[in-house]
Write a structure and sequence with these properties.
about 400 residues, alpha/beta, Lyase, Ornithine Decarboxylase, Chain A, domain 1, TIM Barrel, eight-stranded parallel barrel, 12 helices, elongated
Length: about 400
């Protein structure tokens, strides 16, 4: 993903060629970048030898999940649909973890029937339902119990999941009560302590605080957990001034933790695997000039990529072709939807661009297409996978007739 002779390329194919061949807006993923991200993740935590369960909610495209399976990863799922597609991608059931606060009876029955590694329970009510299903089927089901460590992940408030005011997990007191109550159950086996404190975390400090809470609860409970599921949340660099998580520091924290707690670590990365491997290629429909700014109206909208509207997230927007002419006037990249929040980025000193030009919205491989909708009755974009010189459609562009 770089400029060659002033043209932006994804692997060996220019963004302009992709736009011409497949139309816009289109999500485009780099096979090589996904492979590199997976190998780097494995390398960073090699000493720990974790079970890596890809977070399917970050990107649930079947062809992407086929790659995830090809490179040896498991899956973290939060719905029956995600479990179904993970199984369809041939991810082994013994590498699948089912998380989430509101699993239905139907979802629990299905997960149990597929003999997945474990179900991460988040309330006593859920444990009661799992035990009832197991009892009726004369099975013993592996579960984890999710702890809410009341740890501030120092991330966007809307994607924080590990504080006491969040809906996820159990308080320390309730965790210990449930563990003591169900540890001798004939129908459930508590094999995992699970935590997940949020997403887009770029500092090791929240993880350090989380591990300290986990240490204390293990000491208090005197219980041997086969697995410690540390969730995911590892951030990526969306802006030039932002930073990446220091994996070596996090790795050292876990190594220290494991000296006294001999358990298998589970990770649930999503964004760090596919986030910077995805691009949204768009065209400039109009440029609307005002005294204060130029509105760059794209054919992409908040229904295609909702993160900026939903979280205030910022994604770099690059021209598909470079030139040396800079415009000091403010440029606001917006979509066509009838909402003021349908905007992506505001920048100054952007290069000269024109109606009909192609632009590339970066780092949209995670929580991009999965959060898309048909708002304003707009068809969802196509998804394209690029592998060196080959670009193929992995999801066809929706047609209005199919929606209506």
């Amino acid at each position: 993903m770089k400029y060659k002779k002033s043209h932006f390329y994804i692997e060996n194919i220019s963004a302009e060629r992709i736009a011409k061949q497949f139309g816009t807006p289109s999500y485009v993923y780099s096979y090589d970048k996904i492979k590199i991200n997976i190998n780097n993740f494995k390398k960073k935590f090699k000493a720990i030898d974790p079970l890596i369960c890809f977070s399917v909610k970050s990107n649930s495209n079947l062809q992407i999940l086929n790659l995830i399976n090809k490179f040896g990863l498991g899956a973290d799922v939060v719905s029956k649909g995600e479990l179904l597609i993970a199984l369809k991608a041939k991810i082994k059931p013994e590498k699948i973890v089912f998380s989430g606060v509101g699993k239905t009876i139907d979802e629990l029955k299905f997960a149990i029937s597929k003999k997945i590694l474990l179900i991460n329970a988040e309330s006593e009510n859920e444990i009661v339902e799992i035990e009832n299903i197991a009892k009726k089927n004369n099975k013993k089901v592996n579960i984890g119990i999710r702890l809410n460590p009341d740890t501030d992940a120092k991330t966007l408030k809307k994607i924080s999941t590990g504080q006491k005011e969040n809906k996820f997990g159990l308080t320390t007191k309730k965790f210990l009560e449930i563990l003591d109550k169900y540890k001798t159950s004939k129908f459930i086996s508590i094999i995992c302590l699970s935590v997940h404190i949020g997403s887009q975390i770029t500092s090791h400090v929240p993880y350090k605080n989380m591990l300290n809470v986990v240490k204390k609860i293990i000491q208090q409970s005197k219980y041997k957990f086969k697995y410690i599921d540390l969730g995911g949340g590892m951030g990526i660099k969306y802006e030039n001034r932002s930073k990446n998580l220091d994996y070596s520091k996090y790795n050292n924290l876990i190594k220290s933790f494991l000296k006294k707690n001999n358990s298998k670590i589970i990770f649930e990365p999503g964004r760090s695997i596919v986030g910077n491997a995805g691009y949204l290629i768009s065209k400039i429909t109009y440029i609307k000039q005002t005294n204060s700014k130029n509105f760059i109206i794209l054919d992409s909208a908040m229904n295609d990529l909702i993160r900026p509207a939903l979280y205030g997230a910022k994604h770099k927007i690059l021209p598909s072709k470079l030139n040396r002419k800079k415009i000091s006037k403010k440029h606001e990249f917006v979509g066509p939807i009838c909402e003021t929040t349908d905007k992506f980025l505001t920048v100054t000193n952007y290069q000269k661009i024109s109606q009909g030009d192609t632009v590339v919205i970066c780092d949209v491989g995670a929580y991009g297409m999965v959060l898309s909708s048909n708002y304003n009755l707009r068809p969802k974009p196509a998804e394209i996978l690029v592998n060196k010189n080959l670009a193929k459609i992995i999801t066809k562009r929706q047609k209005l007739n199919n929606i209506i």
